[in-house]
Write a structure and sequence with these properties.
Helices cover 32% and strands 25% of the residues. The chain is of the alpha/beta class. It has a single domain, classed as Formyl transferase, N-terminal domain (Rossmann fold). The two termini are 27 Å apart.
Length: 216
Amino acid sequence: MVSSQKRIVILVSGNGSNAQAIIDACAKKAINGSVVKLISNVQSAHALTIAAKSNIPSTCIDHKTFQDRDSFDMSLAQAIDAAQPDIIVLAGFMRILSHAFVAKYLGKLLNIHPSLLPKYTGLGTHQRAIDNEDSEHGTSVHFVTPELDGGPVVLQAKVPVFEDDTADDLALRVLVQEHKIYPLVVNWLCNERIALSNKKAFFDGQELPECGYASD
């Protein structure tokens, strides 16, 4: 077991409920790490308020003020590097990152996506699950690779889809599970139990299946 605490940077665009879950888990010592910085690309993001209340340094890098994706990513990388993180956690960060950015932090980047990947990459996942009359839906924590929502899955959680569900109903059900599994996976990375190698995810040295550790 790795004893030294890892330094975590969180990237977020919105309310930051997953960021809050990770911050809370660090405070309870459920994660062998501490959040040293929170960065948002949206000035009005509630996550910035969460950081302030938790005495976590934060900054906003507004992507709208940059001419292109590469210049934004360069500024973002500079802000990340200034915090000297071991791990970068995407918690509802609504930006497609450049290949160069992902390559720079490969193996250190985690994301959570509201679907049972490889199903439903991109946006609108809850409504798509309802429209396709799926009986189950869920969320996936995965390593970030250059492919959109295409990195290898570490862990998934499933929820039922009921006949009268709206997208909002399903989103809330999935969010409960996100708050449980994301801190767990972050802790695994802090303790070096998971790793990315040759586009595959490994847990304690064993290659994980496509659906991750909790695969049926």
